[in-house]
Write a structure and sequence with these properties.
Length: 282
Amino acid sequence: MELVALRTFQAVVEEGGILAAARKLNTVQSNVTARIRRLEEELGAELFFRKGRGLELAPPGRVLLDYSRRLLMLERQTAVAVRQVGEATGELRIGAMETFAALHLPRALKAVRAAHPGIELRVFTDTSARLADRVIQHKLDCACIAGPVIHPELEFSELLVEELVQVHAAGHDPLQQPLILFREGCAYRTRALAWQRSQGHALADAMEFGTLEGILGCVAVGLGWTLMPRRVVEQSPHAADLVVETVPPAIAAVPTGMIRLREAPPLAALATLAAALAEGAA
């Protein structure tokens, strides 16, 4: 079984078809089709149901997808680990919530760069739920998210407990305002909605933004209220225009840490990153 065939199979699944996979792999459709056909012949099973021009994963395909992701991740990490022994080159893909990226990542990334100057650092920000999915799918080496995290494939190392506070503009009553929050999948969003319900807010609607500064900027001019880590609010350029109020510990205390795959091989750069984050959170 060739790795190129597994890459092709995975591309077909992730891109949703032969044509899109060919574009991603920079090849022609006939090559993609031939690789999938050879893979099916080698395994003695149909990987897809053909429905007109569309493809749908068959049960054997779902099994192969899980193993192919593991094999391709192991291949990539093996190459990185071998290179790190010598020239310390390679790539480290890091995911983080936007708030965590703003507060804690810069100093830790500086430490990784100093210890592993040849490593290419790639950082992705998203919601906790989406970042966890990307780690499970072998698209990220690690991610810093809100916990607690209980998953058979993931190891969660708590770094700190973030304190969420209610934030609104001076002269405005949050009970009469809409909630402003991150999109679906954000751990803070879940807590904010729970707090909104428990306090009997007059307005149950919410506005969604994809950026930290977008949320705090709108809150600062009186368009709504939000829940946000205290340290984020204190460091915001809008801090002078914001009123901060505490909320009960059940809502406020958010364990935050790093997740990675339990079965992933150790990477020196990842160990450096984890140590730097732990030191910064101490």
